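[Meeting: bench + compute handoff]

Bench side (C.D.) handed over the final construct sequence. Compute side (W.E.) agreed to return the predicted structure before the next meeting so the bench team could plan truncations. Sequence as handed over:
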Amino acid sequence: MASARGEFSSRFGFVMAAAGSAVGLGNIWGFPTQAASNGGAAFLLVYLVLAFTLAYPALMAELIIGRHAHANAVSALRLISPGALLRKLAAATGIIGFIVASLILSFYAIVAGWMIAFCLASLATLLGMAELSSWLTSFGLGRNLLFMLLFMGLTISIISAGVRAGIERWSERLMPAMLISLLVLVGYVLTLDGAMEGLRVYLLPDFERALSPKLIIAALGAAFFSLSLGVGTMLIYGSYISDRENLPVLGGMVTVVDISIAVLAGFLVLPAMYVALHNGVEIYNASGALISEDTLIFTVLPELFRTMGLTGIVVSIVFFFLMSIAALTSSISMLEVPVAYTIEEHGVSRHRAVWLLGAAIATVSAVILLNFGTLFGFVISLTTRYSQPLLGFMLCVFAGWVMHRHTLLEELRKGNPDVEQGWFWKIWPWYVRLVCPVIILAIFAQSLLG
């Protein structure tokens, strides 16, 4: 069954694809700006704790269920569910998951389109095409629609090629290119005046702020969104893993790569903000809050690049190219969630499923653009603040309470016959059963209550 569906051909291919899904705009854009708004190092500290104590166990729940079933989220959750009522709940959870994944992609494609537009705008500036550059950086319906469609086209073309020729092949190319670009930019920005002040804010924590409920909620959302949890992307990627692989090791590798790139992005964005401040660009308002947190990357950073002359134009090209790659490696996993369901549950060919679903999501994106002020923020909050944590809670419940303990152990033994003797098996089953759901619900309740 697995071979007919497609399977990752190597450990490196899976790690690059899964890390590519995890590493996206949430890491390079969202994480650093949230860190800047929530105490810098205090946010970083809480994020690291939650990533390892909540996000990694939840990631393992998805990978284990996915590989056990070698199927889409709906089929996988139904397979491990005894009884008609549980199977209905499983199907509902899987369906809601792919709807949420599609909604995330609908706003993600808009933002990714902006990244491509800003990258091309910097290139146009370098070539002396000022009018074109101005159009590319202006917020207009025509520009937004054009680049959203371009980004969706890129995503569709990769997914159409399948697991090995599409997802794995392009992840192995794009992820190293993204990491090299990020390292080059970090190395350069840290040499500029003002960067050390940003580094101090990023690395020296205010422990009082680390206990703030607002900060903890923001860090949980960042951890779940960053690792693409709750919506079935990691479950689907888990279903394409060979039975020979050691799942706890693979999950640990993905978590470490994801967190490392998020932390590394902080070494770029926060120092860059203080370089901008040093160059006369305002980044905080009179009350001390960060100006335009959600649009920081399109306001403060372009202003910084403009103060750097020709070098700034080149840095801007590399930076927005990096952001475009990060967006693309995540978008292909989001689209794969509804595609896998449509192929396996309804017998539609991959090519047809990808184009139909891609067109449907692009249509939703267009509706959001036509009602931007009302829908854009609403869809982001609905999916990332509320839906993802709740879906992550449900997947922890299925792994901890519904999937039989012996079935879990046998699945883990496939890639590691001695897993029962290790720390993972001694801690993870009860941890994902008792600790993760309680903490996720507690933080979610705090989020609702404000």
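W.E. noted at the follow-up: The radius of gyration is 21 Å. C.D. will use this when planning the next construct.
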